[in-house]
């Protein structure tokens, strides 16, 4: 019995130590001769998404590894991420938990994270920012009118990291990290785009239906054109269990050359994209320019930085695996025939999405070349 107790204690200690090491990669496993890209908010789902894109040659980075970074006080439980990266075939993925206090004095300036942020920046070639819940409006100078804030600590961490990477109007004297490495890669999807905008001094429309289209009930919102609905409001008025929570709608490119020259999209194309948001950019952040909008021009769908060529983002979700494979069949409205995401978008739309990922791959490779 004594031997069993000793074994049990040792086993628990080993598991505990492995979990700790798994979340402290910069100290326990970092290798100087390896190229790393950072993943903010590295949930199991986000890690699996990047793995899918790599495995299916959509994200073309065969010799790159990934470090997920997140604050210790974030609401999300990363135990599933720890388990996932320890599975066979997941050796390219790592985690770095960053200690955080709840009383961070300044998001938009030097703070307790600055040295850690700089270390992560110095030892990586880029970073992805994923989707998520609403940013606290007080972080862009507004009262909360329509925002549902569920993870303020995540937002404080990501906004502070982005501010220190890019700089912003909140503190013009701060010298952004990218001034040292202007080819560094940064991109965001949905919330990621909004975070990049807010971090650089921009603001958000807190609710598109209410503030842009002046519709405040689901019934009235559903009277809008489908292309004006940036998420699905049918689940609020129907009990149909096959309804999807997202929306598909076309976007339009602006005169800015990003999509036409860099992504090499057809100038007449208005690609259908997967959308799941109720907020959008209002005032643009410092040094950003608009690359795409909704068809009515009222919602910004893409941005690029004026000074740093590999910093760009989109309001939609090009990363969702079911855009590239035949998945579950769902409906937008109760009267629709069920279809998979793969069936909803055309081959031309899918080609556009793949070209966008080729642009991301090339941007990261450009960042790698400039650091050698």
Please tell me about this protein's structure.
This protein is an alpha/beta fold. The protein has one domain (35-371): Class I glutamine amidotransferase (GATase) domain (Rossmann fold, 3-Layer(aba) Sandwich). Helix content is 33%, strand content 16%. It is built from 12 helices and 12 strands. It has helices at residues 2-22, 25-28, 44-55, 79-85, 114-122, 152-166, 191-199, 208-212, 218-221, 257-262, 341-344, 347-371; strands spanning 35-40, 64-71, 93-98, 126-129, 185-189, 204-205, 247-253, 272-275, 280-281, 288-294, 300-305, 311-314. A hairpin with a 5-residue loop joins strand 11 and strand 12 (311-314).
Q: How many domains would you count in the coordinates?
A: 1
* Sequence of secondary-structure elements: HHEHEHEHEHEHEHHEHEEEEEHH
> Any idea what the radius of gyration is?
21 Å
User: Can you say what the CATH homologous superfamily is?
Assistant: Class I glutamine amidotransferase (GATase) domain
Helix content: 25-40%
For the largest beta sheet, what order do the strands appear in spatially?
A: 3-2-1-4-5-12-11-10-7-8
Please write the CATH class name: Alpha Beta
How far is the first residue's CA from the last residue's CA? 58 Å
